[in-house]
Amino acid sequence: MTREDIENGSEDMVIDEGKPEGGERMQGNAVPEGFNANYLKVYYGKLFPHADMFKWMSYGNDGKHPACDQSYFGRREFSFTLDNDIYLRFQSFNSASELENSIKEKCPFKIDIGPVYSVDPAKRHAYAQSGDNVFAPVERELVFDIDITDYDDVRYCCSGADVCLDCWPLMTVAIKVIDASLRDDFGFNHILWVYSGRRGVHCWVCDGKARRLTNEQRASIAEYFRVYKGNENSHKKVSLTVPLHPFLGRSYTEVLKDFFESKLLLSQKLFSTEERYEKILEMIPDESITSELRGKWQDNKRSSMSKEDTNVVRWEQLKHILQSGKQKAQALQRCVKEIVFSFTYPRLDMEVSKHMNHLLKAPFCVHPKTGRVCVPIDPNCCEEFDPTSVPTLSKLLEEINMGSLRADIDNEWDRTSLGKSIRFFRSSFLQPLLKVCKEEIENSYNAKLQHSKNSLNW
Ligand SMILES: [Zn+2]
To answer: Is residue 308 annotated as a catalytic residue, yes or no?
Structure first.
């Protein structure tokens, strides 16, 4: 596609050239920042991985194998949020091309993915709601939603929907802790982490046994991850047991402690003002200790002479007092960990995980406010993920323009910065997932054959 194509092109594309700051006319392939239906049309037309989404959501049921459930994909709910906030729920599609055509035609500002229902959700009214025909969700990925706005009391750099490289690592820590537990404690293997496009991350656990969990089982898993049990009468947000649950113990020694001490303490300057350190002192249930520390910190002169960072010095003093031999009470020793947990432990949106019919934004959507694509995050190197450098819609269109002379690449996305995200999605997530799905389909088929053979012999 050339620039002329975009301006005069077959898809009624007009991209306003606009004027950048400074008033200079844009040169070459520059595409003004923004999010609009025209940009989105090009994105869905040339970049969005429709076929991959279909393959994923089919879980191997799109093949010719006699054991494939041909109705499976068609029972999945998609919902589209259109321009002007028109909201279309219970969309369903019977093939890859139906899905692709509908997305291209409706050009949704947001695509959400719901559960697989007992019957085609678009035809739910046609079925008698009785007997075996009750319209109900039967499968759904186990999902997690973690949002940086839930961390506003532990970050001082930003608030609300804003996020910067000082607070984003809280998300990185959440990925590490939850991902390790999903794999090690629950034995899940097919886990997709996705940047939500603005201020958080989503997790899709796609193993068959995860998709078939009941709401009660989902609630138990969500509960397993919960450590925030404080109430309004308590300043402690976190209440840890003795001994610490092995999962929390591992999270503490392998991730949280080091992150708190070597990153968060400094990036958020947690002890730099009275207001900030008072918040931490409130978590210590011993008046004599808090007043001793307060006494040291209110007289700021000595520490200003020290070359060491105030936050580090104060944290060390706090730890020293709480962990010194004098403090026999376990509650006080535990306090150090509780402080670290309350600042760093993942804060999940529980309701999203508990219910099968909760909708979650599809990967590779574009966030309307930021123009950023919801790209997968590799949990094995999530500390390298930088939300501020995620490709935006306008950047991708620019790259399409620049790559228009290259005819040697089949996929348009391959010549854009979205390429590495789609390649990662395929190689690390989709291919291993589909391999297992096909094995499971084959195995269940063979078991059925064996079973009917046995009954014939009988
Ligand atoms: Zn920030």
So the answer is: no
More reliable by pLDDT, 366 or 408: 366
What is the token pair recorded at 430? 């989709």
**Are residues 330 and 358 both part of a single domain?**
no
At residue 346, φ and ψ (nearest 5 deg) are -55, 140
Q: Please give the distance, rounded to the nearest whole angstrom, from the Cα atom of residue 374 to the centre of ligand 1.
A: 19
End-to-end Cα, the chain, rounded Å: 66
- What is the CB neighbour count within 10 angstroms for residue 278? 12
Distance 137 CA to ligand 1 centre (A): 38
Asked if residue 163 has pLDDT above 70, the reply is: yes
User: In degrees rounded to 5, what are phi and psi of residue 159?
Assistant: -145, 170
Nearest to 274 by CA among 250, 252, 251, 299: 299
Cα 254 to its chain centre, rounded Å, is 21
Task: Kindly state whether residues 108 and 88 are assigned to the same domain.
Answer: yes
Cis peptide before 432 (omega within 30 of 0): no
CATH number at residue 419: 3.90.920.10
Q: For residue range 201-253, what is the model confidence (pLDDT) as tens digits?
A: 999 999 999 999 999 999 999 999 998 765 555 556 788 887 899 999 999 99
Model confidence pLDDT, tens digit, residues 375-410: 999 999 999 999 999 999 999 999 998 876 555 667
**Residue 180 Cα to ligand 1 middle (Å):** 25
Nearest to 61 by CA among 266, 269, 251, 208: 208
pTM above 0.70, yes or no: yes
* Domain limits for position 262: 246-344
Residue-level pLDDT at 3:
44
Q: Which of 62, 112, 141, 147 is catalytic?
A: 147
